[in-house]
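> forwarded from #structure-qc
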């Protein structure tokens, strides 16, 4: 099959879940004999290699502005891809739903991966939320198939938009520590810290996690690996200011950690990974933590509960005052329980979320769509 993938910034990149997803899926499709082209935002890549890991890279311009850059790049990329004879086009990001009329009019099979419910995230303005929701609605009308990454998301799209989506989760790799000396760069010691690895935006609940961690009285460190583009975003800037105000000397801000090897070592050696994502469906960071054999403490949402099988593979906590603090004390007071979660974590990935399994599901969907 000749497959185009677009809607992300491009490859290689570690900026967000979209890039992480495509960097796992696309090379595996190539290894199975398919021709894959990934569309890249030209302005973000000063050097423009023609290929990466067997994937063809095509660079398309965008209208450079914080509001127009992503959408203009997706529009131009989708117009270009629809004219190039691809067998199928995979588009990520529900915001690109509105552009699905292009491949539909030109007779090119297309699939939209909607990821999460962006219109519920508090970081967006009312206008942005309106655009996200209605773009998702249009995507359900225009694209041949829509992919949701969680059973609960599948249910919500059926309820909200009356569509039977295809459920294909994200995946993760099972890996172990190779370079423990990396911890010294961050002033951390193995087993001496909890980890948050996420963008510091309100709906990931880092403020609640910090507050509960401080209240727990833990003598460990809370290491926060993450950042966001705070310039010009008053909501995110205010959130960061509030976060630092409620932190104590046991909370350490590591900033954005872009090296995947460092992220792995931070996971592998943490005492526990605390996950507060709320609206994004099945989150890649949570799957990574399980793949690295981490002890997970996750916010009790339908998406996180689905991954942890209702608490069989990690502790769930809610937003009521004192609950996360009590879960922190529980895991610190029961070493056997923690070790059980660490030992079981990779099993969950092996059973449900391997990238080879995810790739097979995409491959089957594409083949079925083309045959139809």
């Amino acid at each position: 099959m000749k497959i185009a993938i677009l809607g992300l910034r491009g490859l290689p990149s570690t900026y967000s879940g979209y890039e992480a997803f495509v960097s796992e899926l696309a090379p595996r499709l190539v290894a199975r004999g398919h021709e894959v082209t990934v569309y890249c935002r030209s302005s973000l890549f000063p050097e423009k290699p023609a290929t990466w890991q067997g994937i063809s890279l095509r660079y398309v311009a965008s209208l450079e502005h914080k509001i127009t850059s992503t959408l203009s790049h997706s529009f131009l990329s989708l117009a270009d891809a629809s004219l190039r004879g691809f067998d199928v086009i995979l588009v990520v990001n529900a915001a690109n739903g509105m552009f699905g009329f292009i491949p539909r009019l030109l007779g090119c099979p297309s699939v939209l991966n909607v990821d999460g419910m962006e219109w519920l995230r508090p970081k967006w303005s009312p206008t942005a939320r309106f655009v996200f929701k209605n773009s998702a609605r249009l995507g359900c009308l225009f694209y041949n198939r829509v992919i949701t990454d969680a059973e609960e998301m599948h249910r919500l799209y059926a309820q909200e938009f009356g569509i039977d989506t295809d459920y294909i989760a994200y995946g993760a790799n099972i890996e172990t520590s190779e370079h423990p000396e990396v911890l010294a760069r961050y002033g951390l010691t193995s087993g001496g810290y909890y980890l948050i690895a996420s963008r510091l935006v309100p709906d990931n609940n880092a403020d609640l996690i910090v507050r509960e961690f401080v209240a727990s009285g833990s003598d460990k460190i809370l290491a926060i690996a993450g950042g966001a583009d705070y310039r010009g975003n008053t909501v995110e800037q205010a959130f960061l200011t509030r976060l630092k105000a409620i932190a104590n000397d046991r909370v350490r801000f590591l900033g954005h950690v872009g090296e995947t090897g460092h992220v792995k070592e931070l996971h592998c050696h943490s005492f526990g990974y605390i996950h507060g994502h709320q609206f994004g469906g099945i989150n890649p960071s949570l799957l990574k933590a399980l793949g690295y054999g981490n002890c997970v403490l996750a916010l009790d949402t339908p998406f996180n509960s689905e991954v942890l099988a209702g608490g069989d593979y990690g502790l769930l906590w809610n937003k009521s005052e004192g609950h996360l603090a009590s879960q922190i004390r529980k895991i610190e007071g029961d070493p056997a329980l923690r070790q059980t979660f660490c030992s079981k974590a990779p099993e969950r990935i092996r059973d449900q979320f391997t990238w080879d399994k995810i790739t097979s599901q995409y491959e089957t969907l594409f083949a079925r769509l083309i045959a139809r």
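QC bot note: The chain has a mean pLDDT of 93. The CA atoms of residues 240 and 283 lie 22 Å apart.
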